[in-house]
Amino acid sequence: MNRFQFGGYTVVLCASMLACQSQAGLVGQPAQFTWLEGSSTRDASSFLVSSALVEYYWSSNPGELWAAFSIDFRESSMVLSFDSGGGPPGTIVQWTFFGSNQFTLSIPTSMAFSAFTFGSSSNVANLSASDLSFVNNALTIDMSGVVLQQPGATFTLNYTTVPTPSGVALLFGCGLARFGRKRRC
Predict the structure, then answer these.
(1) How far apart are CA 36 and CA 102, in angstroms?
(2) 0.85 exceeded by the pTM?
(3) How crowded is the C-beta side of 55, counted as CA atoms within 13 Å?
(4) Which regions of the chain are under pLDDT 50?
(5) 3-state secondary structure the chain
């Protein structure tokens, strides 16, 4: 009878690698958001992606008016929401990204973005699929000329993340561990 025996260290190593790779979702992972205006960093923020909290918030208060937007990064989507107010009754404040503006989301190098689609959009002008680009673990959105037309403006981007080849190689190695050294009785 042919039996495979694993050493205690092999079992613990494989179990820990499998647990890490099977939980390779974006929630709970560290991420970095950067807003470039021209070649200068307008704002940057590091955070853990949460399923319960908004990860990024920015506001401006020129005089009586105010404008703010938030970005909520989720397991498989990103939602930008805009709000504004102040001024005389009936005043509608909109936000336009003049000049060169880029938003970049970077996730851990053990993960990579594999696909993007527009989920939905409401009261957002000049944003299209050509404004999206991604390379490995970084998503860039060209916000130049994008207009958030009124309070409640929102857009959603859906994405898919996958473990990088190094993570997959670890899993493959665990699968081959059983064919390693055999003890003969």
Answers:
(1) 5
(2) no
(3) 27
(4) 4, 11-23, 168
(5) CCCCCCCHHHHHHHHHHHHHHHCCCCCCCEEEEEEEECCEEEEEEEEECCCCCCCEEEEECCCCCEEEEEEEECCCEEEEEEEEECCCCCCCCCEECCCCEEEEEECCCCEEEEEEEEEEEECEECCCHHHEEEECCEEEEECCCCEECCCCCEEEEEEEEEECHHHHHHHHHHHHHHHCCCCCC
How buried is residue 63: exposed, middle or buried, by Cβ count under 10 Å (0-12/13-18/19+)? exposed
Size of the chain, expressed as the number of residues it contains: 185
Place of tokens 């959603």: 156
CA distance 130 to 144: 12
Residue 139's beta-bridge partner residues? 105, 134
> What order of strands is seen across the sheet that includes strand 66-73?
56-60, 66-73, 77-85, 154-163, 111-122
From 160, 168, 155, 122, select the one nearest 139 (Cα to Cα): 160
How do residues 116-163 score in pLDDT, each as one tens digit? 888 899 999 999 989 999 888 999 999 999 999 999 999 999 998 888
The two structure tokens encoding residue 124: 């957002």
For residue 121, give the amino acid letter.
S
Structure tokens at 76: 């498989």
Residue type at position 164: T
pLDDT given at position 21: 44
